[in-house]
Amino acid sequence: MEYDTNKPTVWAKKGPDRRLFFFAKEVSCQVTEGWVHSLESMGLVDGPGIRTVVFLQGCALRCQYCHNPDTWQRESTPAQPMTPAQLLRRLERFRPYYGEQGGVTFSGGEPLLQPDFLRESLKLCRRAGIHTCLDTAGRGLGDYGEILAYTDLVLLDVKHYTSEGFRQVTGGDMEPFLRFVEAVRQAKVPLWVRHVVVPGLTDGEEHLEGLEEYLRTLPRVERVELLPYHTLGVHKYEALGIPYPLEGVSAMEKEVLRPWEDRLNRHCTQGLDKERKRKDEH
Length: 282
Ligand code: SF4
Known about the structure:
CATH topology: TIM Barrel
Order of helices and strands: EEEEEHEHEHEHHEHEHHH
Bound molecules: iron/sulfur cluster
Largest sheet: 8 strands, mixed
Number of helices: 9
Radius of gyration: 20 Å
Shape: globular
Number of domains: 1
CATH class: Alpha Beta
Low-confidence stretches: 1-30
Structural class: alpha/beta
CATH architecture: Alpha-Beta Barrel
CATH superfamily: Aldolase class I
Strand content: 15-25%
Distance between the termini: 32 Å
């Protein structure tokens, strides 16, 4: 289905005297361009089911372990400007793969840094019946309530649970993240929490116990994922001529984190995702 954002939607209904009444409603979608880094058509790890992942360009944070430094600058190659309607046309091609659970995930960079494009794109997806996920570190711009109104699931990247730790990991202030979390609480959107575990930075019993305590305060957490630090993005730093902050730190195995991930899922989730988990296991 395609939406012409310049034309009103018109439909007809029969009245009691069998006359036809016509109704018109403006499609309140502004034509606003976004900077899209790339699309991944068969994403399996960024939300439920098979998903198209839309990577938006631009990020205000500088995480020490970031493996996508090529998404930091908003208007730079290989990003392409695109309207929400153009994006929806691309997504429609992949719709047969989505099945019952899949859909689209907006990721980055930081998708919240392009709030108008994000909101309008989410709105079009919702109208087209496509499940919407927002993969974010919660550090953006705009009216989060308007964006979350069209978001089915938030994948929240929790960088750290203290201000000092947050600054050490990201180079940024934690307050905007807390403001986003409050908006999620108000909007009652379910959360999948993700946390990157880096040796010497965000690992160890004490750190993970602190994380557990913090996650217990978050609303509607359905799932917790611990992501082991990896070094797959290091070559991008070399290509961009940026010094790599975690030079010499070894990658981790996922298996090492499994007991802690299980514990966090037992203690910090609220059982809202039982049906989805059951389907995943079969
Ligand atoms: S928030 Fe994501 S894109 Fe931005 S610096 Fe951190 S890891 Fe990289």
